[in-house]
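Tokens in:
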């Protein structure tokens, strides 16, 4: 008997984008299936942040297609795109919390904006979401009063407030110490398993990438250099891939970094 077909949740086809005439995305194609975690990785200037901006509807491509949860997001009206955004959550690199609001108020914000619920129910849901991300501090604290790791947890609690089907993570371990980084990486795995969400993780942290990924896509100067499982990446004999995941100073990436073409791509990155 044939295995059941996997359900595509995100489909990107031949995505292209240039800034000021300089190509940043050069025909990106990949698919993410329901319930899996796809890591998008690559060095500075490779196009991964620009790609994430397209996936969440902040940027529009010059060419190509993006289908998210069955919707062609490039053809959606503003109202329909706003409705679609309720079905996905984003953990921003900084956490993007409002400093004037308490942690509880930050997490409650999506519920207040998009859900018609009794205040008591919202308060209960906020406590549930904070518990899911391992929150251990008073929720009356302000973002400036907590550590970077706890701000990430609070930002993630807000990202899952509306029970999203898809989660986008923008450099989730950036700026964290090794222990906090491991805790956030494990939290990504736990939420995938508990909530059965589909996840896109944009990172250049190789330890975290191999911890959370079901599959990986490596970008290099705006193109997909390699796509596969973590095991396939570990076995890769591509010298560029090997240098990137090993963090070696010797190899084609180091040599390429001094070329005019690569510098032009870096300047073109938004």
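Residues out:
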């Amino acid at each position: 008997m044939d295995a059941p077909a996997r359900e595509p949740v995100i489909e990107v086809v031949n995505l292209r984008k240039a800034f000021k005439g300089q190509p940043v995305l050069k025909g990106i194609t990949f698919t993410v299936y329901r319930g899996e975690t796809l890591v998008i990785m690559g060095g500075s200037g490779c196009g991964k942040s620009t790609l994430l901006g397209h996936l969440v509807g902040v940027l529009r491509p010059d060419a190509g297609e993006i289908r998210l949860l069955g919707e062609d997001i490039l053809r959606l009206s503003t109202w329909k795109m706003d409705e679609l955004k309720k079905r996905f959550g984003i953990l921003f690199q900084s956490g993007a919390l409002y400093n004037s609001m308490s942690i509880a108020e930050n997490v409650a914000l999506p519920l207040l904006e998009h859900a018609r619920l009794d205040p008591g129910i919202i308060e209960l849901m906020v406590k549930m979401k904070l518990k899911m991300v391992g929150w251990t501090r008073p929720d009356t604290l302000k973002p400036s009063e907590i550590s970077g790791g706890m701000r990430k947890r609070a930002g993630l609690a807000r990202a899952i407030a509306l029970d999203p089907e898809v989660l986008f993570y923008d450099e989730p371990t950036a700026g964290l110490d090794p222990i906090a980084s491991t805790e956030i990486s494990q939290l990504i795995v736990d939420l995938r398993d508990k909530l059965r969400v589909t996840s896109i993780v944009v990172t250049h942290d190789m330890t975290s990438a191999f911890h959370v990924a079901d599959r990986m896509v490596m970008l290099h100067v705006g193109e997909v250099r390699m796509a596969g499982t973590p095991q396939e990446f570990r076995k890769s004999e591509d010298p560029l891939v090997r240098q990137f995941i090993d963090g070696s100073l010797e190899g084609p990436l180091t040599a390429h970094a001094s070329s005019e073409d690569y510098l032009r791509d870096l300047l073109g990155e938004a």
